[in-house]
Amino acid sequence: MATSRARRALLAGATALAAAAAAVAQERPESLLPPGFSDPAPAPSAAPRTPAPVATATATGGVPMVQPLPTPGGSPSPLPSPSASPSPMPTPRYEMPASARRSLARVGASDAFASDAFGAADGAYLETLMRRLSAPLPSRWLSIALRRMLVARVDTPAGVGGADFAAERAWLLLRMGEAADARAVVQAVDTDRITPKLRQVWMQAALATADPAGLCPLADAAGNSERGWIVARAMCAGLTGNARSQPLIADLRRRRVASGVDLQLAQKVMGAGLNSRQAITIEWAPVTELTAWRFGLATATGVSIPDELYATVGAQVAGWRALAPGIPLAERAVPAEAAAAMGVISSAALVDLYSALGDADDMPAPLTRTANALRDAYAANDARARLDAMQRLWDEAETPAARYARLVLTAHAAGRLPVVDGDARADRVIASMLTAGLDRTAMRWSGHVKEGGDAWAMLLLADPDAIGQRPGGVVGTYAPEGPLAERKRQLFFAGLAGLGRLSQGDMEERASSLDVRIGAENSWTRAIDRAARERQPGTVLLLAAVGMQSGRWSGIPPAALYRVVSGLRAVGLDGEARMIAAEAIARVG
Questions:
Q1: CB atoms < 10 A from the CB of 166, how many?
Q2: Helix boundaries (H) for 226-364
Q3: What's the rounded Cα separation, in Å, for the pair 562 and 494?
Q4: Structure pTM?
Q5: The pLDDT of residue 241 is above 50
């Protein structure tokens, strides 16, 4: 009974963390420092109410065949909650030696993290954190670190099944724009161990990667009565040239399982199979929203999706589009830049895309201009000309996300520049290098940038060899410009404090003068501090993402940045902590 009460309290507490993180400065203890620096922490408050159940999708009439995509600024679409004791879906039996079977005690697709990344954390608590997390995240570097953890081969926490825990991780990856990694995670589970929850996420991952054939291993499973899987069986029959595909299509129409563009796209997929004689025309005119089904099947068959439909979905779909080989390169350039800003693709991958565009014929003039400027940024005759080319790329961007994406694009070109004393563009040069983690390369500019400027602040935060503490006056030296100068000063202080670069006395003094209440406590601060103490990097990353739930960097409380940076540093993610602290300076303003 006590265990049951503790479990309910954990779930209730997980639901309250996002709200607590946004209100990190509401509580006002006497000390502005975290517990341990001065007085003991106050006793935890009572656990909040248990959240309402997550809505469950059904296969009844009027409901989409698959989960709709998140809308711009909206909350993520819900997945069905697992049953009390979810059982694997029955699938065709196959012979496999015991040595080749994969255990559900440890599921994942990479070795990027230690298998005990979640320590003794409760599995249902972790799933609740993932389910309630809004994505994409505002921080490129936090998103990169979270992706590496979610795709890693980690131990299944207590209280959840390995297949369901993999499903929750993959669903979060999809919402982050990481379609390929989501597919890798779901496919790390043997098909005879698929649960209903994982089956649904499997479909989402296959559609997000524009791989309808990826549905076929589960399509014939008994009990797959949802409309999406019924149509998938017909598609898979068509892809293999099975003569029964046409009767299946007729049956779909008769039973009104699918209609309109959803059925047309399914027929288009069948038309790609052997001995197909179908010629299908896709009618987008009546369609008012884009779903994963429509995105996946259209992209797989080379059908162009109208731009106005892309406007109905969330930003994560840019990550799906950027890596979809069925979409022409010219149409992937803009989403690829958005994906780079989110952390879905690397600077090198973005450069490769524009290099291919530069070598192609009949490219739109804006893309050719960008490709040529990027070539000049790498290969112009002198450093000044290369820097001028970078500036042209930076100045073309019109939105904050686009401006940051162009910094990602020029990261390695910036790293090849010789040091230039006193150039006003040094702020963006340093920010550009740090988008790709080129911290040691960036440190060559230390001493050659304006003291108190953004480049100077970013170098102090990103320094990989910093030893000991800085004098408190370094915070006052920082003199950013612009309407958000005060917020930049607060974030700079929070980053330095979180990295352990300030003494206790200096932290107290600067926290007071800048009104950054890094000692304020709530359920989120207690949770991330506890996870850091217990050396749980996976849990810390999830809670860090919860604490940074904002559509823009200027909306992230500096006290939350402090907890994120200090928590990551405490569990050995020092590099990520430094890059996130520096990213805050680059992206505010």
A1: 31
A2: 227-239, 245-255, 260-270, 292-300, 307-310, 317-322, 329-342, 347-359
A3: 5
A4: 0.86
A5: yes
